[in-house]
Amino acid sequence: MAVSEKTIEEMTRNLQLPKNILDNLHNELEETKVTKKQLEEIIKRVVEGYEYACIEACEAAGVVSAQSIGEPGTQMTMRTFHYAGVAEINVTLGLPRLIEIVDARKNPSTPMMSVHLKEDYARDRDMARKLAWNIEATHISHLGSLSTDITEMALIIELNEKVITQREITPDEVAGKLEDELGLTVLIDGNVLTVRPENESYRELLQLGKNVENVTLKGISDIKRVVIRKEDTIDEYVLYTEGSSLKDIDDLDGVDMTRSTTNNINEIYEVFGIEAARNSIIKEATDTLREQGLSVDVRHIMLVADIMTVDGEVKAIGRHGISGEKASVLARAAFEVTVNHLLDAGTRGDIDELRGVTENVIVGQPIQLGTGHVKLLAAKRT
Amino acid sequence: MVGGSNPSEPVFYIFKGMNKVMKGSKNFSLLDHNLVPHHLLLSENEASQVLKKYVIDKEQLPKIKVKDPVILEIGGQVGDIVKVIRTSQTAGEAEFYRLVIE
Q1: Domain spanning B30-101: which superfamily?
Q2: A16 and B70 in contact by Cβ < 8 A?
Q3: CATH assignment of A138-214, given 3.30.1360, 3.30.200, 1.10.260, 3.10.620?
Q4: Do A275 and B84 touch (CB under 8 A)?
Q5: CA distance A39 to A2
Q6: Which of A52, A171, A319, B44 is the most buried (most CB within 10 A)?
Q7: ipTM for the assembly
């Protein structure tokens, strides 16, 4: 006699198992009819299997992770200088990118955002393009030609009619923006703008030309380029940007902030918080390794991400981060810049409690790992 | 083991999104973002139960800054304990706790 769904639910409710295993179990049980006795046996075996798969107490999980990420990393070095494009945008890949992630660099060498769009924008190429023009930084060189008239001591900007209609910017707006940024009067004559430097000097005129070129007329100044790509999997247009500035795209209409991300982990931390940064570290590291054809178990990467975010901010692995903050002097000295650490500790009169692994290896004591972590206390027989 | 860092820690109930009023200039709720797991402020009672379960002091928990955007949104104070319900690739769902600090 097969058991009902209700009994299955009752019997599995109080199991100390992760959600994934429970879901799997339920799915399997839905398809196959089992008797109560069989179900008991199944549950017993599942729990047994789960407990067998769990990591042992006192296991050196960190060292296993370090090796498991480090070994494939050695294979990456050979292919270091490869760049590949996601939608024609260059992104750092391979070992340099992995180093960037674990070093928690403030600014990655190739910041990039993927901007997802809201319903009506996501299906319409023209709407998406319009939004892209609002994100991409527009400079005078995009809009027309710039020439210096030495006899008149003036800078002449000829705006291209077609481009300015496409980018939805009027000569008045361009002139207004330039006046705000430069503090000079701009004369408008149709599509031709004329600017004169404050003093009639050749040098100032040249300098003015350079300044005009640097003014961001429209869009976000950090975003050098925007590429629109249709993602077939979700049937939507997605914008990919060269340069990253999550805070600024929040105000734009049509941007779906709940799905937009960047590859700059520090920016994620600032805008979305520490838990999002942790998720981002896991995602970026896994993607980097997978792109190189290396498969590292996600648990190792999760451990790294957990350690990097445990104090509520993103910390680097290494001398300036986790390793440099160890409590033990000997452990720090064993890692990098040995003399400095010993000298500082000596002048301060630091005390090493010899609680960690490295210190105890140095002084030749049993380390607190595995069987070395277990202490036996003998009870007095009375 | 410090905190609920064990991904195998089972979760027996699912928390339905109860997003608070949005703060600041944000046009969306942070908790709706794909990368942000659900954060939940614990009451005094729940907090002491967590500490009892893991046999640890508050300070031994992982930390979260009081200026963290998510903490600003859910309105946490220094000393509060936040429960984070992560979607885990290995366990499906995992609980994590963080102490709110300066």
Answers
A1: RPB5-like RNA polymerase subunit (3.90.940.20)
A2: no
A3: 3.30.1360
A4: yes
A5: 9
A6: A171
A7: 0.80
